[in-house]
Write a structure and sequence with these properties.
single chain; 245 residues; alpha/beta; Rossmann fold; 2 domains; seven-stranded mixed β-sheet; 9 helices; 48% helix; 19% strand; elongated; binds S-adenosylmethionine
């Protein structure tokens, strides 16, 4: 009789443990699903930031691209008095950095996301007030500027999304002065040793990581001269610099 009772008690304990474990596993799976969903929402907003996730993405880009931009700018000296354009300016951090470099010059930023324009304007409020910075909503494919306006154009982590890369590089060249310079900055350099490195982001955002040779060829086809690329050792950071004839 007592052994029968003990068996029943053991059975109940095992049952209780199984229910608890499966509930915890279910919760853990749900947590993982939620984390994955959040990550997807965030990276999808790199293309054209909008709404709640767009705001988070802009904050994360301003912070996350800062060191990459600083490194690239060490290869791209800006002179005092220069008139510079930042294409795909996002939250406006690069515009802010450039304003500190141009002295009595001027910095323009364009982005096709309305949210980015608002955020970039907020970040650069002081420079906008003293007419040193101007942010406009526009596409890289149709820049709202006259020919040969800029001494330099920068574009940080945005090239992958451009709809007509060759045409867009030519459109930038149209706005550059003769001898004006272009700086393209990338974090997604393709890795021949690990071709799947960027696969998830590439598939989700329908973009492609860049290669040194591919970028040099595109710039040459777009008519640029003195093309140079730099890769920061131990990272997947690359920047490409070129001049308009
Ligand atoms: C990954 S974010 C980088 C933003 C910023 N340059 C930075 O480094 O933080 C890409 C930016 O490019 C902008 N963009 C993408 N395609 C564009 C296009 N065709 N014309 C203008 N801006 C574009 C997006 O709206 C977004 O702000």
């Amino acid at each position: 009789m007592s052994s029968c009772l003990a068996d029943r008690r053991t059975q109940l304990i095992v049952q209780f443990l199984l229910v608890t474990i499966s509930r915890e596993t279910e919760q853990a799976l749900k947590r993982k699903e939620v984390e994955t969903m959040k990550y997807h929402k965030l990276i999808e907003n790199a293309v054209k930031p909008n709404g709640f996730w767009g705001k988070l993405m802009i904050r994360s880009m301003n912070k996350g691209h800062s060191a990459l931009t600083d490194w690239a700018l060490t290869h791209f000296p800006i002179q005092s008095g220069n008139v510079v354009l930042d294409v795909g300016c996002g939250g406006g951090k690069t515009v802010n950095k450039l304003c500190d470099m141009v002295g009595c010059g001027k910095v323009y930023g364009i982005d096709y996301s309305e949210l980015c324009v608002r955020r970039a304007e907020k970040l650069n409020q002081k420079n906008i007030l003293c007419n040193k910075a101007i942010i406009r909503r526009a596409s890289v494919s149709a820049l709202p500027f006259e020919n040969e306006k800029f001494d330099a154009v920068t574009a940080v982590e945005t090239y992958y999304f451009w709809p007509d890369k060759l045409g867009d590089l030519r459109e930038i060249a149209r706005t550059l002065k003769r001898g004006g310079r272009l700086l393209l900055v990338f974090e997604m350099l393709a890795d021949p040793v690990d071709p799947k490195k960027w696969e998830e982001v590439e598939n989700r955002l329908h973009i492609e990581a860049v290669t040194r040779e591919g970028m040099e060829e595109m710039l040459e086809r777009a008519g640029y001269l003195n093309i140079r690329t730099y890769v920061r050792s131990g990272t997947t950071w690359m920047c490409a610099i070129a001049e308009k004839e």
